[in-house]
Amino acid sequence: MRDRLGLTMKRSIGTAALGLALVAMTATAQDMMRHVDLSSPDMVSAELTRGEVEAALAAATIAAPADFTGKRLSGLDLSGLNLSGATFRAARLNKTKLAGARLDRAILDQAWLIEADLTGASLRNANLFASQMARARLDGADLSGARVAADLTGASLVGASIAGANLGADMRNQSMGLMRAVLKSANLERLNARGADLSRVDLEFAVLKSGDLTGASLKSAQLGGADLTGITVINTDFEGADLDTARLIAPIGLDRARNFDKVKNRDRLIRQ
Fold first, then answer.
1. Whole-angstrom Cα distance, residue 21 to residue 24?
2. d(CA 169, CA 28)
């Protein structure tokens, strides 16, 4: 009886410890860069060729889409491929060329896409949760309706679309930590963000010149030092947004924006 009780207690403690570890891992999912050697073969090499990727796509079905979970695909040229619906969970795609590729509905959760080239790619309704995309190129890419809680620090999304996309934090699930998009120092010039959820998103020092945020939410977003010159903000919700030293010059529709009187550091805005 005593041995059985001891075994039960050990199992309970082990399960609790595992649960705490998983929570801790998830809470730091957007800080995966720490202690990672980005020059290691695991992060810069590929275990498949483009031909093998194409073969996997050809064998895939709607019921069983192509699955590249955990695969090393860094540095490959996968430009123009139709990868719609494929799974790339925790895959390594650092510096991979995906220009013009179709990744609609693709699952890229926890994937590594550092300095990946996604110029003109389609990622409509894709999932990018805890993905690492620092300095990725997404100029002209279409992320309409996507769920993006990725680190896009220093990325380029010139002329891209995130219309209707969800980049904001899910405040109902904070046991997982503050998971949201990070676009610090990103180039978002001429970005189409109509109807996008950018609540609590980190946009510090980002360039949003001539972007369209009609109907978007910037609730509690961090916009310190951002360049908002010529931005369209018709029906944009600014409640709680931090605009410390942001450049808000010649905005379009500011008189029709929502909750602009509730922004933080409004007195520190640069207006000319």
1. 5
2. 14
pLDDT tens, position by position, 180-236: 999 999 999 999 999 999 999 999 999 999 999 999 999 999 999 999 999 999 999
Instruction: Give the number of other CB atoms < 10 A from CB of residue 41.
Output: 9
Half-sphere exposure of residue 66, counting CA atoms within 13 Å on the CB side? 22
Q: Please, which residues have CB within 8 angstroms of residue 181's CB and are 6 or more apart in sequence?
A: 148, 149, 150, 151, 152, 167, 168, 198, 201, 202
Name the nearest CA neighbour of 251 among 234, 268, 264, 226: 234
pTM, full prediction: 0.86
Torsion-angle region of residue 266: left (phi > 0), alpha (psi -120 to 50) or beta? alpha
Q: What contacts 64, CB < 8 A, 6 or more positions away?
A: none
Q: Which residues contact 249 (CB under 8 A, 6 or more apart)?
A: 228, 229, 230, 270, 271, 272
